[in-house]
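Q: Could you fold this chain for me?
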Amino acid sequence: MCTVFVSVDPGSAVPVLVLAVRDEYTDRGWLPPGRHWPDRPGVVGGLDLDAGGTWLAVAPGAGREAVAACLLNGFGHTADPQRRLSRGGLPLIAVSGQPVDQVERYDPFHLVVARPSGVRVVSWDGSSVEESELPAGLSAILNDGPEGRRSSAACPPGILATMNARLARFRARLQAAARPEPASGPPEVAWGPWLPIARGDGLPPDDPAALIRLLTPPGGRVWGSVSLSLIALSREGIRYDFGAVSEHGPSPRVGLETVLDRTVLSTSRERTPMDKEPSAESLAEMGAQMEAWLVARGHSPSIPASTADAPKWQRDMLTVLSAAEAAGVLRKCPHLTPEPQPAAVMAEAPDLLLCLPCYSEVLPRRVCPDCRKPSGSASLEGGVEDVRRGPLLIYSRMRCAQCAWLKSPTGPEGTFGA
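A: Sure. Below is the predicted structure, expressed as structure tokens.
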């Protein structure tokens, strides 16, 4: 039972605001927002590990209007199982500016497509498509459509009552609060009075009106709110704040982090470790540091190889990495400074630079880029890690043992540097 609130104010410096809560089975695997799709390097979104799509995607713009797309499941007639396509591909299609073809192959959905110039909702109930433009003011989109007006007959009465309670409570709370105009700064400053409301407004997760919800049926899968997204769209750019629901106690916790902040494009972007040209001495010193670090972790010593000889997985990483750097949205851990220093980049998140200690910490949580399932281990005996070493960066791909053997004719590539 996902919920999206959209505020449209054409006269505001930030004309479109989106508040989106994702409800899902809590054991369904996912990754936080990033550039997870090499064929769409300009798209940022969370990754669903089951089907490879997303529930929400944004495209910063890069010379055109920024756009965000959010997906809600709908009610109605389901698609033919033999021809069914995953609905998680719809936000990726929408932010790429492509039309949604073969709609009959999707289960019912509501797709919210937001730009600074306006917001439209595409709804499909398995029988017909309906498109609508959201008016100025505050609108709500639920699993039974904009303002709960579509497919209500197919919605179970219990779920309908819960959606109506949530809508009544939080529409009134958001309308009573001052509308923010998010700019640069921490989420608490940018979103002002909206933030505590978006985080649940103090309601326990079992309250019928709760925005941050948790349902634990006897002997069944746990269903609840797993993440919160806050998006601000202006003519100058886009801001995207994201947080996972970490606790479902009496007061659920949602810690927000800024994924994208392109709201001030005229100022200099934050510098990255690739912004300063290192000296030959610095390169040699960093190369020695990375080599010693890799060997200490059990990797083979590096062997000379040119960039032209890089495998496809490394070239795909470089494509996304370069696009993110050019767009000014390259992410990095807080320990990296503008000075040249060793860093690591992972195949499953090629727009994120990590210092070596942080890279070590995330190893147990890594995901196989082929099947998008856990790699199995942070050690070389479990997940199989392929490594290439450049002058400043360690490029790493860790696949689960099954993919490493099945997808390489001669078995795993092993651990080699370049």
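A (continued): The CA atoms of residues 290 and 342 lie 7 Å apart.
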